[in-house]
Amino acid sequence: MKMNANRLNQTAKKFLQKIRLHYLAYRDIRRFTRYAAFSVFDDSYDQLCARIMYNVHAIEKGLSRGKNMRVGFGRKALANLNDALVVYSGKGYSRETYTYIQGRSIVHRYIDAHGKDAGLDLGTLDVVDQSFHVGRDTFDAAGTKTIYAKDKLNNSSKGFYALSQGRSSVREFSGERVDIEKISNVLRNAGKTPSVCNRQGWHVYVVTDKEKMQETLRLQRGFKGYPTLPECVLVIAVTNSAFLSPVERNEAFVDGGLFAMSVIYGLECESLAAVPLNAMMNAADERDVRALINVHDSEQIIMFVAVGAFKDETIVPISDRKPLSDYMTYIA
Ligand SMILES: Cc1cc2nc3c(=O)[nH]c(=O)nc-3n(C[C@H](O)[C@H](O)[C@H](O)COP(=O)(O)O)c2cc1C
Q1: Domain Nitroreductase: where (predicted)?
Q2: Which alpha helices (H) appear in the chain, and where do they start and end?
């Protein structure tokens, strides 16, 4: 049959593309190396804010265990938060910002949870500078909130903004069975996600086998200590075989991230509780997950999503959001 491509040309092109890929990947590494917040002494405003939020979140998660909260938990997160706040203050950044207030708030919520409810001697907060303990009543932006199953009943008839603003990551489940038809609806809808040149390289593994779920979550390492297993774990992957050129080297993450967001909103629409879980595994754990679920080597694992039914009431982190002015630049 008629063939237009010439094998020699294609082989030469492939060789050049590989060189270009290395160059572009080197630029990725260089940018990441320069700007990531590897150390607390990486002290740009953005780097310190990221470090503050990371630790605020860790403490919010600990507080959201409610009655199962481990008294005195999170000493490392508190120490890291303290150091980021100290460097932040030392740099003279504003104390009126969203992030600074988040950092201060969570120290107060931690004290409240221990001092008021658990009766812990506040002296155990020795990793936190005394100045961050004062002015308690003014800082309440961070902490926990309660999600009620009854508020989720009509999710499918909510408007999009109400649905998305009402969604929160939920890490505890009732243990009630999840209808696989609902998961199929969610994934069918997510298939409408835009992807670069409509490549649609995604593949979702729906894991319901309890042992495999348990082992996947153990290897994922970001979902520890919750009393009930989810009803299923979705493993969202995108094949690198969907991409044609070195400039598309990160598209698996972009298309996969968009797809995952469609899945997460779909689950909310179906009144299912869910939490996205990172796929930032070390090499050995990733190899084991791939072997366990049979994920093809061509596929990039983008994210896991744990899914279950809502409990009547669940305490979750507030996970408050930045104001629009922090992330919108209007260029007229
Ligand atoms: C890519 C990604 C990875 C995440 N990984 C984890 C994780 O490993 N463990 C976890 O408990 N939550 C994880 N989350 C959930 C985030 O903590 C959560 O989305 C964030 O705090 C905002 O809260 P919200 O989802 O309740 O609005 C992840 C979220 C995303 C988007």
Answers
A1: 166-215
A2: 7-35, 45-63, 75-90, 98-111, 160-166, 180-190, 210-220, 251-269, 283-293
Confirm whether 171 is domain-assigned.
yes
Distance 43 CA to ligand 1 centre (A): 25
In this structure, the answer to whether residues 188 and 234 fall within a common structural domain is: yes
Residues 122 and 255 in one domain: no
Domain with 201, as residue range(s), is 147-316
Structure confidence at residue 114 (pLDDT): 83
Q: How confident is the model at residue 137 (pLDDT cuts 50, 70, 90)?
A: low
Residue 257 CA: which ligand 1 atom is closest? 1
Residues 257 and 158 in one domain: yes
Residues with CB under 6 A from ligand 1: 57, 168-169, 171, 222-223, 275-278, 303, 319
Q: Taking a C-beta distance cutoff of 8 angstroms, is the pair 141, 108 a contact?
A: no
Domain of 218, CATH number, reads 3.40.109.10
| Of 131, 136, 172, residue with least CA distance to 315 | 172
Per the domain annotation, does 247 fall within a domain?
yes
C-alpha dist (Å) from residue 177 to 130, 229, 315: 48, 11, 21
- Taking the C-alpha atoms of residue 299 and residue 203, their distance in angstroms, rounded to an integer, is 8
Residue whose Cα lies nearest atom 15 of ligand 1: it is 276
The answer to whether the CB of 240 falls within 8 A of the CB of 252 is yes
Q: What is d(CA 13, CA 24) in angstroms, rounded to the nearest whole number?
A: 16
Q: Is residue 296 part of a domain?
A: yes
Find out whether 205 and 293 touch, Cβ atoms under 8 Å.
yes
Residue minimizing CA distance to atom 9 of ligand 1: 222
- In tens, the pLDDT along 60-109 reads 999 999 888 888 899 999 999 999 999 999 999 999 999 999 999 999 99
Is 181 in a helix, a strand, or coil? helix
How many structural domains are present in the chain? 2
